[in-house]
Amino acid sequence: MRKLTDAAFIRELSSKLCPDLSDVIWHESEVTLSTWGQGLETGKAVEFLSLCSLINAYRYEGQEVSIPDLYKNHPDLFYIRNIIPRHHGAQAGHDATNGDSLPLRLRFLGALTPRAIVKQSDGCPLLIFREGHPIHFINYAKQYNIYYLERPDLLISKASIEIELLNDSEISFSYRYQSGFTSGKLRIVNHAKLPLISLNHTGELDIPISGIVECSVGKGKDRASEQLDAYRTLCKVPPKPKSVLVNGRNKSYREYDIEIFIDLALEDTSKIERAIVDGMINFSRELSGRSNK
After folding, report:
1. Which of 12, 75, 93, 135 has its CA 20 to 30 A from that of 47?
2. What's the pTM?
């Protein structure tokens, strides 16, 4: 039994839960350093563990989960946010997590590509995005002329997506969801405005979100509740998305559908492993409507 809860333990546990991601998890670079080379208080290691635990949960339930080949060939991209690259100047968050040192065309590919794809029996998979949902952002900006900043740590949506790098200056996407279809082109350029060349859609422009995962290792109860309210306002298309809070503090957040408490002060790391594994299995069942299984 390991006797220390630190980023190294979180990294080892992530690799244990998702062995097919081991090369990505143990990849060393400036980008990965922002996750594994910092203290747990940044929340990035716990966020990564939550993603791996959710992937593990779906596999435990017998569902096929695939990791796009893009991340096997370019592991740094797995660590950046699912946010369309835009020049933010000195805005907070403009750091290695955005992959600023990576080629711009790769950053656009990484921004649009889900971290994992969960195969569903009805042919419409679940897509897992990290710190952003690029198509939701594009459609929201087009409809309301707002570039929102609120981003859950993980977003799950029932949809399919196709992405094609047309050339060094353009990338296309098509996104099919239950209530509509969106396709368009983006110019590969780092600009303050969304570099949208074209956008076409049928059906509803608002994109439904199935699940929200938020991680907290230091934020207060009021802040966590405010964030959930903001996420639900953005993801307003019914049904209301299921939510889970991975909580590193001993507090109760009743606003979330599920709370996974992982006591990072524990020396017995097996209890942390059990909590995150079991909690994400419960959340995956909630998303599938099988919570009483």
Report:
1. 135
2. 0.92
